Amino acid sequence: MFDLHGRSVVVTGGARGIGAAVARTLVKSGAGVVVADILERDGTTIAADLGPQAVFRRLDVTDEDEWRRVLDDAEATFGPLAVLVNNAGIVDFGGVESESPAQFRHVLDVNLVGAWLGMYLAAPRLRAAGDGVIVNVSSTAGLIGYSGIAGYVASKWGLRGLTKAAALELGNANVRVCSVHPGPIRTPMTAGMDPSVAAGQPLPRFGEPEEVAAMIGFVISEATFSTGSEFVLDGGATAGASLVMPS
Ligand SMILES: NC(=O)c1ccc[n+]([C@@H]2O[C@H](COP(=O)([O-])OP(=O)(O)OC[C@H]3O[C@@H](n4cnc5c(N)ncnc54)[C@H](O)[C@@H]3O)[C@@H](O)[C@H]2O)c1
Known about the structure:
Blueprint: E1 8-12, H1 17-28, E2 32-37, H2 40-50, E3 54-58, H3 64-78, E4 81-86, H4 101-129, E5 132-137, H5 150-170, E6 175-182, H6 209-221, E7 230-233
Parallel strand pairs: 1-2, 1-4, 2-3, 4-5, 5-6, 6-7
Helix pairs in contact: 1-6, 3-4, 4-5
């Protein structure tokens, strides 16, 4: 079991949804958790609710200087960095022909470049600490394609690939890097989504943020021989297609 006591954890996009559930789970594991987000009011509220083992820090994941400040601050507040959860993400609707170049670039900038910046700046700290875990929150959109969210799909496949590249480079430092691939989860991101999105799944429902947090907690604390690996929780959505047999 990976011991998080006396160590710091940074959860991006921690102010709500999956990130807030992850922060809650990791506080229980004994870590000091930095809830890092652009949503200052929501983030401050969540951190206050979690007690002295959590603080909110403003972080726009696309901003390298803010990343440096947050990582410095995490280590000054709670001790050497142990875990980075790259969870911040956005979705923007638009297909290959309809998403504007600016929209496409922005989604890539937040979901992929933002996560890479975190890894780029956190990896030397984890190397110095002698161990650590990076969890990248991808999606089933990083395992299969979806129409109508071209930039999102590209960003989540990119994050899955980047996870493997980082795992190969950081294994010798005892730093594990894994990706997590949720299907539809009930969060503000999916609030406007038709519930029928989940109807064709073997488990025909949306997942809960706490279910993703439990998986991420497992990857961090228990999956000590896994790196470069994909952890899928999607109600079976990517298991395959059902054949309709002739009667
Ligand atoms: N909800 C789902 O169905 C689902 C499924 C698969 C993957 N995911 C992924 O899970 C992650 C969390 O999603 P969620 O459903 O909780 O969404 P959410 O919209 O509820 O939360 C995302 C958080 O990221 C923050 N954020 C956005 N841009 C940021 C930036 N530039 N810098 C810092 N923080 C930023 C937001 O402020 C927000 O707090 C995302 O990466 C998302 O792509 C979600």
